[in-house]
Fold this protein.
Amino acid sequence: PRMSRSDHLELDGVVTNVYAGGNFNVKTDAGAEIRASLAGRMRKNRIRVLLGDRVTVRLSPYDLTHGVITYRHK
């Protein structure tokens, strides 16, 4: 089971655009467009995220337009 921090929001969405350097645009299920970067653990384990993948994004409550991709759904 994944542990989640209580001060972050976790949303599911689909990757809509891929940029260089591990940056992505994610369309959440709520309808918001978020720019997101890849989490360090995912970079370390070389988990690839491609266009159209379903992902979990963790958002800070202070900036709801930027997040970190923490999980790629199978």
Notes: The beta strands are 9-19, 23-28, 33-38, 54-60, 63-72. The mean pLDDT is 92. The first strand starts at residue 9 and ends at 19. The CA atoms of residues 47 and 72 lie 8 Å apart.
